[in-house]
Amino acid sequence: MTGHLQFEVRAANADDARAVAESRAQVAAEGRWILAEPPVDIDAAMEVFRRVLDDDTAHVVVAVDAADRFIGMASGFDQHPGPVTFGMHVLAEHRRQGVGSALLQSILTWSRERGTHKVVLEVWPHNHAAIGLYERHGFVREGLRPRQYRRRNGELWDIVEMGLELV
């Protein structure tokens, strides 16, 4: 933890479904940081989250503040024999306070415990804060996929691929 924010990272559970879905919708509404775009179907997102919790190849953690309010989440999926794929989001008011680093560290620890050889992720090229976070944890840029994702407005956005070898 850094700054004045006190929080903990813990394993996600089914009771977190609504907070995770609503936070996904909130971050999606910013239109810049995650693949999802509004409107996010909260009920559908809750159902997907619950299914992921039942997946033994997935690791899902949430960050909560001292009052147990949701502030961020991360998920990793073991693609054995391939790498773990990773994604996360943090609510805007809690960014740059160590939450993303703590969530990422949980995914890396889980990945190492599973004997995974590599963790990979995708990030928008304009998300300089996230790219910096990943680089501080040892991730390297492995490629750029031009015009990889079509946004609802028709724009085609590039994606940066990043990876961290664990063994």
TrEMBL record:
SUPFAM superfamilies assigned: Acyl-CoA N-acyltransferases (Nat)
Domain N-acetyltransferase: 7-167
Cited InterPro entries: Acyl_CoA_acyltransferase, GNAT_dom
EC code(s) of this entry: 2.3.1.-
Keywords attached to this entry: Acyltransferase, Transferase
Source organism superkingdom: Bacteria
GO function term, MF aspect, one: acyltransferase activity
One protein family per Pfam: Acetyltransf_1
Protein name: N-acetyltransferase
Naturally occurring in which organism (per UniProt): Gordonia prachuapensis
